[in-house]
Structure formats: structure tokens, C-alpha cells
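task queued by scheduler; priority normal; single chain, no ligands, no partner chains; default sampling; output format set to C-alpha cells
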Amino acid sequence: MNTLLALLSFIMLYGLTILLCGLLTVNNSFAQTPSGIEVVVMDNGVHTDLALPVKTSVIDWNQYLNVEDFKGANARFTHVAFGWGNRKFYMETPAWRDLNLEVALAAAFGFGKSAMHVYYLPTAPKTSSRNVVLKLSEEQYRQLVTYILNSFQQENGRFLLIKNKGYTSTDNFYEANGSFSLLKTCNAWTNSGLKAAGIKTVFWAPLPHLMMRKLRKLNAGTSQ
């Protein structure tokens, strides 16, 4: 009984912390750059990714990624998406029906390594109920790029490919820095990248909902 009460108390405290941190806003002076570089925050309801142009004046991602490792992609693909998460979860849970207790506990409490999920997109994702398009200045974009680069393990200027683990012909996994936990989730990784780039977002976002709500208000021209 004591164990159950402790677990329930922890869940309630965790949920309350998520709510409070999701109501706190950072980078309140942020304004989108009308002719800036477009970045897309993509949300599937549980997990968020960042989609960036393959090539800009700031970076050519092909310098770090070998497009030949993506058999279904080619040089005409315009965007590449990045997501960070628990390596075991990524490798063993291509669909939610594949989730088991061991994998869930390992991800929640930070056991094992992390991985970067990378996939090429033939065109830019459009604004939708799930996607938010943000227009960044070159400096803001550079800060976001630096954050993403620092999330990868690298060797000789290349990301370290985890071979034969992609879900499709247009995605792959790479070795990453850091460990997944209840404090640092895939969504918290996305939110930290937005914070590093000076984008108006929430203080902490282990779940996507409050972060995405804040970002959608940026495009709606409202504030809270």
C-alpha cells in the first residue's frame, strides 16, 4: 500500500510540475522573421521532431549525412527531420503495439544509450493541426543547428550511423549524446532546441501538448 501511495504521489507531482512548467514562458521577446529560414516542429501527439531545409547558407546537412545511406531518398529531397530519444525504445518500438514493460521502464528511467532519428522529406512539411512552421533569422537558425549538431556523436565530421535499424528507406538512426529519462524526453529535447534558438516556448515540455499550444499561438499572432 505504501508503495502504491508513493507511486501515485509521484505521478501527481510529476503531472503538476509538467503543468506549471508548461505555463511558464521563455524568450518572450521572440518575433518571427518574415523572410527567414523556415523550421517545422512536427507533432504526432506523443513525439515531436524538427524538420529543417537540407541546405541553407548556414549548413548543408549532406556534409554530415550520406544520402546514399537512405535508399529511398535522393538529392532532390528538400528537408531533413531530426528527433532524439531512447535508443532501446527506438530500436524495439517501431509501432506502439510493440511497446513492452521492459522497454518502457528503460526509457523512463534513463537506462541505456540515446539515438537520433533522421529522415529525409521530399518537400517541406506544411502547417497543419500537427505541424507548426517557424521563420527564424539566420542567427536563430544557426543556434538551433548548433544544438542539433551537439546532440550527435561524431567521428571525423560525420554522424555515427547505426546500421540497418531504420524503419523505412528514407530514415536512419545515429548514435546520440545524453540519456533519456522522465526529465529529458524526446519532447524536452525539442523544446530545449527551441529555447537555445531564442524561440518563444515553454520552460519544460516532457510532453508535447503545452509546447505545441504555445507555438501555434505564435503563428496565430496571439500571446498568453
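post-processing summary
- Residues 2-23 form the longest helix (22 residues).
- The two ends are 42 Å apart (CA to CA).
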